[in-house]
Amino acid sequence: MQQNSAAGDDAGGWGGPLAGLRVLDLTRVLAGPLAAQFLADLGAEVLKLEAPERGDETRGFAPFLEGESHYFLALNRGKRSMVVDLRQPEGADILRGLVASADVLIENFRPGVMERLGLGADALMAINPRLIYCAISGFGLTGPLAGAPSFDIVTQAMTGVMSVNGAMGGSPVKLGLPIGDMSGGIFGALGVLSALHERAATGHGRVVDASLYDGTMSLLGYLSQLAFITGQDPRPMGSAHPSVVPYDSFPAVDGAIVIACLADHFWPRLCAALGCPDLGADPGLATMAQRRERRSEIEPRIAAITRTRSVAEWQSILEAHDIPHAPVLGIREALAHPHAQAREMVVEVQHDRLGPIQVLGRPIKFPGSHQTPLAAPPVLGQHTADILRRELNYSEERIRDLCERGVIDRGTRK
Known about the structure:
disordered N terminus; transferase activity; transferase; CoA-Trfase_III_dom3_sf; CoA-transferase_III_domain; CaiB/BaiF CoA transferase family protein
C-alpha cells in the first residue's frame, strides 16, 4: 500500500496538471462532490463550502467511523472544508470574495436556487469573468423536467438503464453502482476541463450545464443504436451480452468465473480449455451470429463444465489458453487485489480526526511524473478560519464574531 501524508502541499512531488487552479465546491451528496474530487485528484485546490451545523448531507449517512461517515469519506478526498452560511449576507460576501480569485465553481442545487440567493452564474461571473461555473443537476438547466427533483434511481429509470438490468425475464433492477450520479460527476468534470481549455484561448469563462440525465443517457451506447435499428427495446439479460456468446458469468465450485469471447478466434481456444473440442469443431458454431442463435444450447453446457472446478483452477486453465476471463470478486477482494495495489488504487492518508485511513486512489496516472500524495477528506469546517485569514485577510476578531453569529460554523477549530 502506498503511504501518503495528510497535507499534499508539504509532501513534495508534482502537484498535477491542474496545480494552481482553485475550485469552489458548493456541492453535496454524490454527483457534484465526485466532479470536484476528480479535479482535486488532478491537482486543483478544492475549497468545499458546507452549510453550518451538519455540512454536506452525507456527513450524516451511516455507518460511521468515530463520527465520520463512510459516504463522505469516499467522495471528498483532497479537499479543504469551510463552513459558510450562504443565506446570510456576510456568508454570501465570503463566497463573492473567494470567487474573485477562483477558477471554477461547481454547484448541484436545483436550478434557480443559486439565483434566489443572489449568487447565480451571471452575478458571480460579473465579479470574475474568467470563472467556469459548472451547474450539475438531475435534468439540466433547460427542458420540461429542468426543475424536477431527481436522485440516482430516478435517473436510471428515466434513461432506460433499469430496463436492461437484472435477470432474463425478471423485473427491472437498479445498478448496484450509482451510475446516474456518477455520470453527472464524470461529465461535470469533463465539461469543466473543456471550458478551462477554451478559457486559455479566449480569456473568458462560461457556464457548464451537466446533468445526471444527459450523462447517463449518453452511456447507453450500442443499446441505443440497437433500439434505433431494430425498433425494439433491449431486454435484461443478467450478465450475458445481447450479441456476444459466450460472454457471461459461469458457476464454479467455490464462486463464479467470467468468460468473455468477444471475438471468434477465442471460441476454439475456449472449447479446448473446457475439454469439449467437438464444440470448437462444429461449423455451425464458428461465428458469433451462429452462437447467438444457439445460446440456449451453449451456455448450459459451459456452465455444467465450469461448476466442476474451482475459480483458481479455471483461472489457471483459461490463462494458459489466453481466454479473457476474471473471477467475480467481492469489494474487499477487489480492493486487496495485487493489481489494485500496484496501480495505487488503494492508498493510506492521515485523517485529522481518525488518523491513518484507507481511501481510493487517483484513477488517472501520468507516467514519468509522480503526483503529490493525496490528502484525506476534511473534517467539517477544518479549514474555515485558515482560508478566511490567508485568502480574504479576515482578522481574528472578525472570525470570532462570524462564529458567534453562526455565519461560519460555531465549531470551527482552526
